[in-house]
Amino acid sequence: MPTPYHILIAPTAHRQIRELLPKNKKAVIKLLESLAINPRPADSRKIEGMIGLYCDEVSHSRVLYKIEDQEILILLVK
Question: What would the pLDDT profile of 20-72 be if each residue is shown by its tens digit?
């Protein structure tokens, strides 16, 4: 079943995800999958002063992403 949003991962974020501990990596991947269905969950935070920029935290990791049209660009995972 296709999701409403297409997830793109910036090279820096991709590298950061690869470097996570397996438990944290699994939690971040689960978050990314859920963002493809609902990119604005109740616990995500909109970054003030930036259009379409959001932050979400999961398993000691912070995910920074930008929503544009039907795409979500994952920018940073710290």
Answer: 999 999 999 999 999 999 999 888 999 999 888 999 999 888 999 999 888 88
If one counts every other C-beta atom within 10 angstroms of the C-beta of residue 24, the result is 16
Q: Write the CATH number for 13.
A: 3.30.2310.20
Q: Are 72 and 9 in contact (CB under 8 A)?
A: no
Half-sphere exposure (Cβ direction) of 1: Cα atoms closer than 13 Å:
4
Please check whether residue 77 is in contact with residue 63, taking contact to mean a CB–CB distance below 8 angstroms. Answer: yes
Domain of residue 21 covers: 6-77
Instruction: Look at the pTM and tell me if it is higher than 0.90.
Output: no
Domain membership flag for residue 1: no
